[in-house]
Structures are given as structure tokens and as C-alpha cells.
Amino acid sequence: MSPPVCAIPGAGPGNGRALARRFAAAGYRVALIARRDETVAASAEGLGAAHGYVCDVTDGAAVEATFKAIAAELGPVETLLYNAGNAVFGSVDEVEAADLEAAWRTNTLGLFHCTRAVLPGMRAAGAGHIVVSGATASRKGGARFAGFAQAKAAQYSLAQSLARQLGPEGIHVAIAIIDGVVATPRTREMMPDRPDTFFLDADAIAESVYQITRQPPSAWTFEFDLRPFGERW
Amino acid sequence: MSPPVCAIPGAGPGNGRALARRFAAAGYRVALIARRDETVAASAEGLGAAHGYVCDVTDGAAVEATFKAIAAELGPVETLLYNAGNAVFGSVDEVEAADLEAAWRTNTLGLFHCTRAVLPGMRAAGAGHIVVSGATASRKGGARFAGFAQAKAAQYSLAQSLARQLGPEGIHVAIAIIDGVVATPRTREMMPDRPDTFFLDADAIAESVYQITRQPPSAWTFEFDLRPFGERW
Amino acid sequence: MSPPVCAIPGAGPGNGRALARRFAAAGYRVALIARRDETVAASAEGLGAAHGYVCDVTDGAAVEATFKAIAAELGPVETLLYNAGNAVFGSVDEVEAADLEAAWRTNTLGLFHCTRAVLPGMRAAGAGHIVVSGATASRKGGARFAGFAQAKAAQYSLAQSLARQLGPEGIHVAIAIIDGVVATPRTREMMPDRPDTFFLDADAIAESVYQITRQPPSAWTFEFDLRPFGERW
Amino acid sequence: MSPPVCAIPGAGPGNGRALARRFAAAGYRVALIARRDETVAASAEGLGAAHGYVCDVTDGAAVEATFKAIAAELGPVETLLYNAGNAVFGSVDEVEAADLEAAWRTNTLGLFHCTRAVLPGMRAAGAGHIVVSGATASRKGGARFAGFAQAKAAQYSLAQSLARQLGPEGIHVAIAIIDGVVATPRTREMMPDRPDTFFLDADAIAESVYQITRQPPSAWTFEFDLRPFGERW
């Protein structure tokens, strides 16, 4: 029996890389998907089970081709971890229409494209997992998140529509509401005065996502929040 | 003193026309905005205070030009009633990427364009009202609303970001969560077996929207739902 | 035809008194209900249409007797404005079990008692309004609101159960989510450094509540928030 | 080093028994708490690590005495799994004030009492877990759940207040929103026509609760829903 396949659009440092590591450790073949070759290469480094795919998730034809290649090379995708994002911060004065659109395309349209690409295989298997990396902004439109929050809200809504439709087909859709900043070299450098406890640890997130994909169909989670213990909320 | 100006993108039959009637009755000059000339003409008919503007709200340059014309011809916009919508129903199997995008552009991007167009005038006046026509789908992604709900969720989120930012500047942003089907000749014909009590009355919606714009700044509503009394929810 | 009757449990200074004033101005006979005689008397002062009733809303038998007296003396209650509250602030360390219980009894159990008392009359009339004074805490349990928030959450939930059941019977149930501090002599004195714009104006709240009771059954609101324009949320 | 201690108020068949089994399997000493001796005895049967305590969680003094006994006999409580509940179903016409009160006391007041009882020990340890068994009714007041939903809403709110306060102290508070009916001999008998897939499996719930208590402090979940895959929501 061949190992199960996990595809990770948005396979950058932070969550993407940590998810890859966790699922590889569990015996998955991992397809890392990102727009740029360097990103994919960096995330795949040292992970024998990881295979890189360069693809812009907002491009429907490219997504279709990429997932065909994944199926051919690794096998049908059992688990889709949708981690692609695009963070444009700022108020209505600070963001432009193009920022709103780019955020929506990456967070929401890309999820639609990837879901359509994996659905035939999951339906054929009568099983599958789709876990989306959401954010606090998925549920709350802050004044300074006019561009980002609308995209995460649309993504959350689409994930909910998918969960409601696909659950009865045996396909488990869930969303992690990540409430805080994930520690990466870049975020640590941007916020040098913050203590370790301010940041979410990407490996801890990946572990929770992995556990969600272990749930038997008789008790599935759609939504779970994740925040560092010291976070005020 | 010249009468206040109210702009209504999405000025079709149903809510658009009813809002125009209500604000005209209150002494407003009303700018009706829709994509097609016939829509604008039909909604303006018999409303002396109404002026029609043909404009695609998803086109930023067209929106800017239209609102410049409104300001020149009618005066600065005091109240923006964002009623433009685009309903593509269906599950993830039934809608296409282009449907999701069209829904998002009309519901969310158009709101952004129109808000940017009216903000300078509202800020100069230190006051203004923006009321958005939302839907149940703004807060809930149903299985058969994969295209529509994500767009309304993004719109809701953007409205919330706007409300949080603009409230302290004296600009009131609100959203009506319309939970049900508005009676129009078209919806009545599509659902001939439904009793009168199944439908929302557009004039009743318009009255509630009007009252929201009467609230003094010491007690502003952001969100209010509207449903027919017999609706199961 | 005799004037309609409005009953206001929690008829103290602030919202209670302002609601009485607003509905009296609209031609209602107003039954002011509070635990203490002085409260009732102070709120009734100068309001010819107001009649005071001393009653502890947490006592089911007393509520039944009071509403019988109101029906006999003023007529059947058409509108119930449930404004009784009990604010015990503090964290889990600062509040005691008795505080949680008192808060729940006043906010939630009292609403149940009063609803049961007015329902027969409203059902006989095939119409009626019940509007509850909620709070931000109705939807959010803050760290320092361990006693208060649980009671407002229970009250909100009960109001929602009532709205869902009674709507189809023609009885309109709504809740105002009051997000901020209402200006009263006492709150102004407690927070002397806050500007006028920090506070909600009770008359503005009362006006919005009154407008909600004007909605025709084809477009009823269940929930609406109210906050001063400068409030950060 | 002595094994960690887990206390389970509401240790009946279904979730209570399954939680006990799961934590016992992980090496915990388990304190089973229920009102009746038979309940405790039945749940403890065959679980060597389980110790029964008869206690009414709505009685503050009894709760204090029980947790003193647990600390003395088993050691300080590291994990509190609050599973006590009281389901009175029915509309506002079908439930009585006493039903609302009993539901609130068991779901909410009992959680307060038990939290107060375990807090000193958890604070001394600088760590601890409190997981509450919530329900769909925690977030939604249905027409036929007037008694139950208000109690679960209050419980949810209290859990949220606790999570916000205790998180920064290193104590993890979470709530499982259980959306459906848990399979027990009694529920299966009550709904004989329902297929297996209609029911939640208590062991699956217990596994998810257990995993939540494994999360490192850098990524804690407060809220997660659990429903059988075929559930319409």
C-alpha cells in the first residue's frame, strides 16, 4: 500500500514548512506548492518525503495542471492543507483595490481552485481532509485590516460551505482560526521586542492540524482557534 | 440650504427602488446607480427627486467619474446606500470560479470603490451614512451558497472594518442582514406557491434603513437583521 | 379605543426612565416596574401616563400578581421592554456564587417570568412586542465580567428562543446590544474624566427601541447593537 | 513522580465514562463525580484508575469538600473535565422557571464552584486544564430549547471569561461544542430509527478532548465543535 499524499499550497516558512514536517513524520508523501521556486526548495530541504511544485494558486489552469502532476507522481491527494495567504494590512485609506483583489484571490479563489482539483480523487476514495489556515480576521473586520479581513472572511465562508456540503460525503473540511503571529525568522526580526511567548509556534499549530485529520467521522471539528497562552483576546 | 443627497448603487426593482422612494419622500435628492440604462430608468420613473447614473460599480474609474458627476449635479453625497449585489447560487460543484469572482466584485469591491468615492465629501462635512444591504449569507456559509456567501461574508467584513474606522470620524456605517426573499414581481413569479407572509416587503426594509440613518451619534447601530415574522431561523 | 400599554421592568434612571418618556410621548400608558418604591416614584415623576409598580422580577408569584394588576388597571400589555439588570463586575476571583446567581435571576429568570405573564394577552391580541436591553457581554465573556457576562449570555439566548418561537405567532421579540456606558448622574460621577461622547444617551437608545416596535411584521429585527460613535470595538 | 489527576464532574454513561477511560489509559488517576452513587459506581466499573465521589456540583460547600478529598486521596487536580449537564427541553410554554434554574445551576454554577475548587492547586502548579462539554445550544437559542440553551449560553460565556483570565496564568480553558446526540444505550433506545452515523461516539469526543489537553501553551484552542459527519448544520 502506498503512503497517503498531503498537498500544501502556501508552503512557505512558518506554517507551510511545519505542516510538511509533521505530515512527513507521519508517513505522508508531501506536495509543497508555492509561487516561487526558492520558497518550495527551502521548505523541501531536508524533507525526503517532500516534493516541490511551483504554481500560482490563483490561476485555475495552473492549479489543475499541478494537481494532475501530483496525482501522477505521488498519488491521489488524501489531505489538502490550504495555507496560501496574502497579507495586505491597512485601513481603507491605506489599501488599494488591487490589494483587496490580490488578497481575495490568494485566500479564497485559490481555495476554490484547489478544492475543485482534489475533489474527484477524494470522492473516488470516499474520504479526504481539507484544513484551511484561517485567522482572527476570518471572523472580525478590524479597522486596520480592511484588505486582509474581507479576504479571510470570504475564505472562512467558503470553507463553511464546503464543510456543510462535503461532510456527508465523507470529506472532512476544517479551519484553524490562528489568533496571533506565527514565529518565523522574519516576524521575530520585525518585532524584536516581543517575548517568545508572544508568538505562536508553527510546529504546535501543525500538531493540532494533524490531530484534526485523525478525528473519526463520528466527531469532526469544523472550526478551532489557536492562540498563544499569553494573548489578550 | 440644498437638500441632502443619497446615492444608491444597485438601484434595481425591490430594495433599490424602495430606498429611493423612502429617501425621496424625506426630501433627499437621490442618485440611482445601476449597470443598465433600463434599470435606472425604471427605478427613477415617477420619482421627481431621482436622477439616474449608469455605472458598473466594479470598475473603479467609472465609479470615480460617476460620483464626480453626482457631486457636480446634485451636491456632495451625505448617504450611501450600497445595494449592489450579484446572486450566484449553487454548491461548489455548481458554481464556477468566474461566478465567485463576479459575486465578490459586485458585493465587496464595489463597496470599496464607492466608499473611497464618497469619503472625501463625508470627511469634509464631518458626517455621513453608509448602509449596506447584507444577507443571512453574510454570516453563514450554506452548502448551496458557495459562490454567494463568500462574497457577502467579505462585504460584511469590509463594512465592519469601515464602521470601526469611520465611526470616530463621525461617519456612520451599518449593515442590514436581510434574512429572506424580498418581494418583487420576479421573486413572486419564481415562487408562486409562497404566501405573502413568506416575503420581505422592500418598503419595510427601506423604512428601517431610513430610521438607522436618523440615529444620533451617541447610539449608532452597526448591524441589524430583518426577516418576515413567519420565517424559521 | 384605549391607548396601548407598555410595561418596563427595570424602570430606573437611565434607560428605564427614557423608555417610559418615549413611549408615553407616543401615547402609551406606561407601567414602571422596579424593586424599590423610590425608584418607581422617581422614574414616574412628571410623566402623567406612567404608573408605578413595586415588584421583584425574580419572584414568579409577584410578577404574576403585578401583571394582573397592570392588566386590570391599564389594560393588556402590548409592549414589554425588559430592562431589569444587575451588574456584578469582576473576575472569577472577585465575584461570588451568589453574585452569579443574582445576576442570572434578574437578567434571565425575570425575563422568563415577565414573558410568561404577558404572553396570554399578546396571544389573545395576536400581536405584541418584547424588547430586551442586552449588552456587549451578551455575546462576549470578558475576563473581568465573569458574573455579569454569563447572565447576559443566558438572557440573550432566552430572547433568541422566544423570538424564534413567538415570531410566527405575530409577537416580535428583539434585543438591543448596548455597547458602552449609558449616561446617568451616577455613571457620569463615577467616570468624571470621560467626555460626553464616551457615553450612550438613554433617549437615543429609547428612540431606537421605539422604532424597532414600529417595524411591520414583514421585516422584523431581532438584534441590533448600539454604541457611541467614538467607541473602539 | 505521582500520576496526574483528572476530575470529571458529570461522570455518567456517555461522555463522562468515555473521558474517564481515555484519561485513565493515558496514566491519569481519575476522580469520577456524580450526584448518585450508582452512576459513579457504574462509570468506575472496570477502571482501576478511577475513584468515585458522590457530590451535587450545584452545592458549593459539597464541591469544596469533594475536591479537598480528591486532593488528599489522589493528589492535586491537573485537569478538570466539566461534563455535568441537565437537559430540560421544550419551548417557553413547556418549561417551568424551576427547569431553567436547575439547568443553569448544573451547567453554569457548578462550573463556577468546581473552577474555584481547583484553581488554588492549578495556580500553585502554574499549569492546568479545564475543558467544558458544551453544545450547539451554547451558541444558539432554538425555539424548543428555551430552558436548555440559556444555561449552555451562560456556561459558554463563563468558560470564555475563565479562558481569557486564566490563559496568561498558564491554565488552559477550552470548550467542546458538541453538535448532535451522543450514542448511549438510552439515546439509542429513544431514537431507534436513527442510523449509527446519526450519533456522536463518546470515545471519539474523549479522544479530541484529550488531544486538546496535549496542546503546548504556544497554540491553545478555546473552542472546537464536534459533529458526526452526516449532520446537517
Automatic annotation (TrEMBL), chains A, B, C, D:
It holds the Pfam family adh_short. This is Short-chain dehydrogenase. Gene3D superfamilies: NAD(P)-binding Rossmann-like Domain (3.40.50.720). It comes from the Bacteria.
